[in-house]
Design brief:
Blueprint (H helix, E strand, L loop, with lengths): L1 H28 L4 H6 L5 H11 L5 H13 L13 H36 L4 H15 L2 H15 L15 H35 L2 H8 L4 H12 L1 H25 L5 H11 L2 H29 L6
Helix pairs in contact: 1-13, 5-6, 5-8, 5-11, 5-13, 6-8, 7-8, 7-11, 8-10, 8-11, 9-10, 11-12, 11-13, 12-13
Amino acid sequence: MFAEILRRLLATIPVMGVVAIAVFALLHVTPGDPAVIIAGDYATNDDIARIRARLGLDQPFHVQVGIWVSRIVRGDLGTSIFSGLPVSTLIGQRAATTIWLTLFAMLISVGVGVPVGVLAAWRKGSWVDRAVMVFAVSGFSMPTFWLGFILVYVFAINIGWLPVQGYQPMASGAWTFLRHLILPAVTLSVVYMALIARMTRASMLGVLDEDYVRTAFAKGLAPRNVLIRHALKNASLPVVTIIGIGFALLIGGAVVTESVFALPGLGRLTVDAIVRRDYPVIQGVLLVVSGVYVLINLVIDVLYVVLDPRIRY
């Protein structure tokens, strides 16, 4: 098992190399010149040429790629064109907000989506099942920014229970910290919650018809024990898979959610960098997010063995 984990960790190195080159290439083939944006509307051609030389944009593409990859190997993600700060510093300043938002949204999604999916499968064909499916379809089809504005209007403006926007660190107090994260986390978790609920229901329906489940019910076991200890455990592999895949949905949704609620996270940092054509920041954020996603997939693979000992690599 340890050897397999080590092998998969080593396999992430070429994967991240391909991701790095792809990110670098995609950003450089898009229209627009950061040197022109930095120079301003009244800059001369000589001014633009000097800025391009300072940024290394006058070098051939393969030379730029080589320079960037060599910096990444040394742990240097570059320097922001506009702020002048190291990209690693900017990511470190914003990462805590996105991490807490993502974890909180994941906790809500899994904590609600899995039980709701199990209940819908257990009450297949009833009004509970139909209500869950309506919620799942509606939640998965609902635009994140629209839901965010609705929640702000209801719970922040009309009722006044929660703040409209902003972020407070944990050091300011647990309740203050949570009050600023509830609305963004709920907004971000609805789509993910609907996806998990549908997958849990579908996976449970395939397990509830198995002989060992019917035997457990015939022995007089409580429905809760049968559903959780027998059915859900054996139906959990697809659910765990969708949880890992859905992490990408959370990261993508965080960009919109952080913009709606004015959260100083990686999503806002990425949007601002795209608007300014700040190549180093965009590349650094995408590379870090890709690395996290690769590691999450590795964790999901390890959980397969924990949940089902019959699986062997």
